[in-house]
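ok posting inputs for the beta-L-fucopyranose job
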Amino acid sequence: MKLPKILAFISLSAIIACSKVSPPAPYGACPTPQQVAWQRMEINMFCHFGPNTFTGAEWGDGTEAEELFNPTALDCRQWADIAQRAGMGGIILTAKHHDGFCLWPSKQSAHTVAQSTWRNGKGDVLQELSDACTEAGVAMGVYISPWDRNAPTYGTPQYNETFRMTLEEVLSRYGTVGYDGKRHIFEQWFDGANGEGPNGKKQTYDWQLFNGTVARLQPEALIFSDIGPGCRWVGNENGEAGETCWSTLNTDGYAPGAGSPPIDTLNHGNLRGAKWVPAETDVSIRPGWFWHADEHPKSVAELLRIYYSSVGRNSLLLLNVPPDSRGLISAEDSVRLLEFRAALDSIFSTDMAKSVQITASHTRGGKRCKEFSPHNLTDGDYDTYWAVDDSILTPVLTLSFNQPVTFNRIMLQEYIPLGQRIAAFEIEYQETDGRWCRLAEGTTIGYKRIILTPKTTTKSLRISIKSSLACPILNNIGLFMDNIL
Ligand code: FUL
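and the output
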């Protein structure tokens, strides 16, 4: 055979050999396509806005006069514009916080924008946000607090019905208009706080009714609560997901709020947990959730640390940026957010792994099988990945560079549509004399893991999977230098 024929024969046999190899089967609890899309948003904006913005409180007691709510220059387009420029694809607004005040003219309450003097009682913040999000192509979510310190029926079974109708109003009227012409809410945020109502009573929430209502009206929306079902609270408000962070959780026998799993479990998830309930890290850019004149935003360095301990630990970051009493995101916060985005871009726009040669101890279907080749780790395509045969649980990747590279951040991503599998890994680098030295070790990877290492210069790196629940599947590797932190 002549050379071109031989080459054609070799590649044809590789294709034939490979075509017999099927992709790994999903392992354990796996995400829905909506959960994958949500996780890929990485950072979203939370907006706490309402009577507290004007009173300086963090928890209003529901007796605040409606006239207090009077933003002088409310502009949701400004919120959406800043979110978009800061790389946040979604905004979640406190449509109703614990004080019960509704930012839309709700028929279920007498404590709403309609009773305020703002825009002569004709204003509707949810409508304005829906329009702004639609124009900017930003997804819209809503926080609607079940705990209501204003509702007279709170503490009686009737309140559950009122709350259901409240949900119906919001979820059928508002949201970003999609290509299908329908209004979409991407996330329904249910706070677990469950205090007393105006009558001194505590409510037994009908979560089945509430979740069922969301599922019926916005089937694609993720429901956030302490235990999901769409995504879970990370267990603190400091911006810290666990170093070990499983997206799987056992929720049987638990309820949001007082009945939730221990904080530590929310922070780490459950190894082999029965449901896919990824962690969402909610944290404020300021000390409080609501805007207060005497508070200021966190520094870029603090925000970066939060990014690493949330997005970098398999969690979504929901960063609260509270509009001020004018109804605008303050200049201070906007500038800080854009600086934060510029810092992320400067760190992550140069990926040294792009020029790397990667070899794997194992490849599913054999070395020649392109479909599962380690080259997929750097091709920029989310849906291509490196995989190994089902029986291989501890494969090793070796990264070699022509020239030494200097970095201090290593990014690894598991292909989560097929489940979260890796439970332990180790990273080594090679010294100029050929010795391999341990650089880092860790447990879970999940959607994204960013490993902070000392500044390292090397021509070779080795990533060893030390423990995996099923054959590991990685779809991305990155190497970066952070000169800011
Ligand atoms: C908590 C609430 O009590 C805070 O006011 C805030 O809304 C935070 C995001 O959730 O449970």
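notes: The longest strand covers residues 449-468. The domain at 33-348 is CATH 3.20.20.80 (TIM Barrel).
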